[in-house]
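Protein Record: Sequence and Backbone Structure Tokens
======================================================

Structure line: whole-number tokens from a learned vocabulary of local backbone shapes, matched to residues.

Purpose: to set a sequence beside its fold so the mapping can be learned.

___
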Amino acid sequence: MRLCTIRTEHAGEQAAVVTSQGIVPVTAINGHLGRAWPTDLYSIIVQGLSTEIVSDAEVTPVKLGADTLRFGPLYRHPRKILGIGLNYRDHAADLDAPYPTEPASFMKCDNTIIGPGDVIELPPQSQRVTAEAEIGVIIGKTCRRISEDEAQAYIAGYCLIIDMTAEDILQKNPRFLTRSKNFDTFFSFGPELITTDEVPDLLGLKVGTWKNNTLHRENVVSNMAFPPFYLVAFHSHVATLFPGDIISTGTPGAVVIEDGDVAQCRISGLGDLWNPVRRRDE
């Protein structure tokens, strides 16, 4: 099953279910069946309600066409966004960086969040910003000190991510990583949360960084040094992971973006995420 967040003029951002017949807002489910389901996707994940809501969506007659809708980020305020650096061996070679012997993780803040089609703003402090396509793991249940074999049971699903880096700031000093990663608009995710049952071959997925409809770099999840289940288990031994937490698992390649470009993430079987790029003067 697939879930999303749509934007409407009157109701703002609200959760919806993606069905084979169209997209069903949770507000339509509540109105048709007299339910009181939460209408934001984050609360649905935290409360573990997705299966019940999807069942109700199938019998709700309101079905909207995706081409008539504008999608938002899946949600705005996760407790944690964990990024993983240099998780594909080829990407480490691109940056002339030493290959990490354990996950090279960092944190991002929720001020960075944007959704599909939103503008990535290039800040005046940086003249070299890169965009990085990644597959995201969304935690579905609280977990602490779990094993890699247990990890899938704690995952709500996957999503597409475009992560940005002010690379020239990072190159000055590796201690500037937090600043280089946390400018406004530096984290796009969506347009759908794809549950684990829809991804039978996670390791076989191809993740591609694209710019202006041209492929920059592509790789297969199986070529990660630290695959998604390992990342969930590893970080659960560092800090408790909560529903809605996001792990952005690393990029096959970062592409420099300029004013007027369109940055894109494409993942086989999961979809396409894109964002236009603009230079911010102040």
The two ends are 42 Å apart (CA to CA). Residues 2-71 form one domain. DSSP finds seven helices and 17 strands in the chain. The chain has two domains: 2-71, 81-279.
